[in-house]
């Protein structure tokens, strides 16, 4: 593997450049991977014959893959929750000692290896892999083009993808994304990022625009997910969701919170431009005002949320630590979760049999019967074998993950975790 500095289009490294200029200059790059590091985020672009065949950035790339796989699962049923969890256990291991992908990931994004595996194992047809890759490219380019002008240090790698599934004209993808960014900009300054998290804070205000039943469903799904995650849940474009919710945001029915880590490191779609540029940007935004009326927006978002289940999910949490059970209970303390806390692993199996939960959160390090043993026992029960089991542990090593997988675990949650991490786990396996 050889890598070397490359000065694309002979542009001086001392000259401030725009992300758009840099991306368009890749049309003249050799086949391979060109990546840029800016504000601690690594942006990777894979080029073949001047076309863009993949793109990624270093912030939780597997979460991005999971979201797009979830959206595609409506067209490809094999991309179900169980398979997506299997992918995470196989490929998304943060342990530095995991040597299998340690070197490769410097030149080849680990999530792309997961896509290759899906195609090779016949879970994902090649045309659908092309659609998946195109959607990922669009999302990455959308964030990249929001970067302010500055100095970009670029590195070129000769190593290349084993197989490609789509080939996009850089001119065309820049044109499409620029139109989307104008639309995002028109929603500012309140909505300034696809990774902001909307929360329902006033049911009475929302009920002026939609039925109480729809408002209830709206509140159940707006529980810490950002616009991109909501897009995956509802199978809709995040931009469309932001437009439709903007009415309720303006009315004060919905409160927007800043992007959660690590997405707070990504640039905003709305920013305060230099005064000399502000007038031009304002005029540009005005030319892209959505002609859909407010009533139509409310009708659209109402229809999307009407399809959401009103089910109360039964969650069993098994942990010998009373403080950990208390934390999990507080994180899930909502009317749509019925949480059962179990401290004694010896009695857990009997209780699980009587409850028949929708999901089990299982600590690994417990006395008497540990999490691995209990998980194995649960999987031997014909009545319980298909319940998602999430192993909760402070251990991050490959051996621990392998043992969890062999015991029959569906997924893996590493301590310490935030409420958003737990809710994302709920999204993967329940919604």
From TrEMBL:
The keyword Nucleotide-binding does not apply. This is Response regulator. The modification 4-aspartylphosphate is found at residue 363. The lineage of its organism: Bacteria, Bacillati, Cyanobacteriota, Cyanophyceae, Pseudanabaenales. The keyword Plastid does not apply. InterPro entries: Bact_response_regulator, CheY-like_superfamily, PatA-like_N, Sig_transdc_resp-reg_PatA, Sig_transdc_resp-reg_receiver. It comes from the Bacteria. Keywords: Phosphoprotein. GO terms for biological process: phosphorelay signal transduction system. Pfam families: DUF4388, Response_reg. Residues 314-430 form the Response regulatory domain. Coiled coil: none annotated.
């Amino acid at each position: 593997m050889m890598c070397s500095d490359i000065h694309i289009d002979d542009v001086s490294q001392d000259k401030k450049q725009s992300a758009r200029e840099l991306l368009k200059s890749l049309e003249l790059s050799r086949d391979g991977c060109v990546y840029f590091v800016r504000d601690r985020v690594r942006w990777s672009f894979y080029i073949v014959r001047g076309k863009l065949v993949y793109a990624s950035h270093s912030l939780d790339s597997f979460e991005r893959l999971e979201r797009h796989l979830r959206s595609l699962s409506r067209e490809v049923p094999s991309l179900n929750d169980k398979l997506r969890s299997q992918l995470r256990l196989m490929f998304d291991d943060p342990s530095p000692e995991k040597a299998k992908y340690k070197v490769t990931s410097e030149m080849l994004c680990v999530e792309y290896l997961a896509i290759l595996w899906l195609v090779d194992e016949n879970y994902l047809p090649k045309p659908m892999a092309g659609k998946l890759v195109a959607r990922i490219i669009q999302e990455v380019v959308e964030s990249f083009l929001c970067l302010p002008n500055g100095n970009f240090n670029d590195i070129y790698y000769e190593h290349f993808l084993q197989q490609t599934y789509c080939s996009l004209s850089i001119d065309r993808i820049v044109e499409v994304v620029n139109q989307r960014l104008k639309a995002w900009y028109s929603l500012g300054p309140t909505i300034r990022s696809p990774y902001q998290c909307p929360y329902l804070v006033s049911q009475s205000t929302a009920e002026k625009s939609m039925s109480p039943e729809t408002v209830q469903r709206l509140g159940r799904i707006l529980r810490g997910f950002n616009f991109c995650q909501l897009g995956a849940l509802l199978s809709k474009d995040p931009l469309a969701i932001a437009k439709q919710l903007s009415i309720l945001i303006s009315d004060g029915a919905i409160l927007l919170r800043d992007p959660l880590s690590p997405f707070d490191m990504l640039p905003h779609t709305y920013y305060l431009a230099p005064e000399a540029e502000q007038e031009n940007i304002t005029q540009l935004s005005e030319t892209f005002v959505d002609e859909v009326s407010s009533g139509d927006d409310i009708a659209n978002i109402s229809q999307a949320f009407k399809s959401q289940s009103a089910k109360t999910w039964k969650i069993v949490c098994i942990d010998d630590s009373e403080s950990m059970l208390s934390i999990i209970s507080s994180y899930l303390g909502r009317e749509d979760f019925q949480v059962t806390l179990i401290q004694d692993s010896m009695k857990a199996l009997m209780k699980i049999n009587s409850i028949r939960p929708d999901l089990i959160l299982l600590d690994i390090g417990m006395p008497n019967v540990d999490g691995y043993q209990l998980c194995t026992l649960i999987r031997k029960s014909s009545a319980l074998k298909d319940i998602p089991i999430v192993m909760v542990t402070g251990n991050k090593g490959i051996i621990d993950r392998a043992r969890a997988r062999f015991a029959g675990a569906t997924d893996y949650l590493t301590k310490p975790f935030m409420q958003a991490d737990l809710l994302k786990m709920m999204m993967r396996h329940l919604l």
